[in-house]
Design a protein that fits this description.
alpha+beta
């Protein structure tokens, strides 16, 4: 299975909203990839910015897959990739 940028951002927003105790609409996220840092996301919660690393993104995708698709996946089965778009391949 593969999910793309919009779903990855949704996963991050839902995850961060749950962790911060706010509504998902109070969270914004922007994905990026840099050679030095790998995959990261800048996340704004109620106007405050923070960066999360790939491990946090994978955790958000794990939770999202369980909540939205009722699929139990583990970080080791998720591979992030990007070219003009971002996506996550999730092994069965």
């Amino acid at each position: 299975m593969r999910i793309y940028t919009d779903e990855i951002i949704n996963a991050i927003c839902l995850h961060m909203a749950d962790r911060r105790g706010v509504k998902p609409t109070d969270v914004e996220a922007q994905l990026s990839w840099e050679e030095e840092y790998g995959f990261t996301a800048e996340v704004w919660v109620n106007g405050r910015s923070q960066y999360i690393i790939e491990a946090n993104i994978l955790e958000a995708i794990e939770q999202y897959m369980f909540q939205q698709y009722n699929r139990r996946v583990f970080r080791s089965s998720i591979t992030l990739d990007a070219d003009e778009d971002f996506w996550a391949d999730i092994a069965d």
